[in-house]
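User: I'm preparing a small set of examples for a lab meeting where we compare how different chains pack in three dimensions. I only have the primary sequence for this one, and I'd like the structure in C-alpha cell form so I can line it up with the others. Please keep the answer compact; I'll paste it straight into my notes.
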Amino acid sequence: MSWYNVSGPESDVVVSTRCRLARNCKDHKFPSKMSLEESEKLISEISDGFLKTESDFRLIKTRELKSSELLTLFEKHLISLDLVKKPERGALLLRDDEEVSIMLCEEDHIRVQVMKAGLALMDCYVLADKIDSALDKKLNFAFDESLGYLTQCPTNLGTAMRASVMLHLPALRRSGQLAVLSSTISKLGLTLRGAYGEGRESRGDIYQLSNQITLGITEQAAIENLQSITRQLVTQERAAAERMCADVAMQDKIYRALGILKSARVLSCDEMMDLISLVRLGSARGILDIPIEKLNELLVNMQPATISAANGKHIDARQRDCLRADAVREALS
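Assistant: Understood. Below is the C-alpha cell output for the 333-residue chain.
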C-alpha cells in the first residue's frame, strides 16, 4: 500500500515526509561525464547486486517509458524533473509499495529516497540509511574526510541528505502569514517552496519544507531542526485554521467546494487542487467527515500524466478533465 493510502502522524497538516541521500561510486565519473555505455554498465552493476537481496523492488529503465509514464513518476515524487527531461541514461529501482525509490545515474550515481505518510522524519532517515549502508558495502562510495560525501552539485556536499515534509497550509496562506514565515524560515537553514520543487508555484496550498545545509552538520541535527520548525508550522496552521473555520462564510466555501467536486462533469487539475484544498481543510477541522488519506490519494492520482498513463492511450486535455471529474465524483459519492 502506497504512502498516500494511509494516515500518518500530524496528517491534518503534514501530507508526507521524504528523505533522500545522494551517493556516487568512487571509481566512476559523475553521470554528466559518462557515456551511455558507461552509465548502462554502472546501472547493471548497481541493480544486479541490489535485486539479488531485495525481491520487492523492480528495475525501471526510464528510456523505455512513454512521456506520460515518466511524468506520472514525477507527479508521484518518485523521480526528478531532470530525469524526465533526460531519461536516456537513467533508471529507477522502485519498491512495490512506492515508499522507497532509488534513482540511478541522474545527477548523481545513486539517490536513495524514502517517503512516508505524515510526519515521519526519523523513520524515513533510518530506512534510507539502512539501504545506503547495504549499497556502500558493495559499491565503495566517494567520501572525503573534510567534504563528506562527494556529489556533482557542491550544495549537496557533506551529508548529501535532503529531508523534506509536504505541508498543507491553506489557513496560513489565506491569512497572509505564509510570506512572513517563509522569510524567517530561510534564516534557519530551511526553505519553503512549491510541492514540485524550486521555481514551481504551489497548487492546492501544498508546500515543501526542506533542509538547505548539508555541510558541517550531522544528519541527526538537520532532522531535528526540520522537525522542530515543522511542529511550529503545524501549531500555527491549526490555530489559523480554527479561527478561519469558525466563520460561517468559510464553512460555506468548504461545503460549496465539496458540492462542486461531487457534481462536476469537467474538472481541470488546478480547479480540483483548489477545491480539494478547501475540502481537506474542512476534514482536518472536523467540519466534513471525509478521510484525509482519500483526499491525499486524489491529489496524487488525479494529476494530468497519471490519468493519461492509467487510461493507456493518448487523450487530450478535455478528455482528461472529464475522466478526472468522473473519478472524483465516484471517490466522494
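A couple of notes for your slides: The first strand starts at residue 14 and ends at 23. The longest helix spans residues 219-245.

User: Perfect, thanks.
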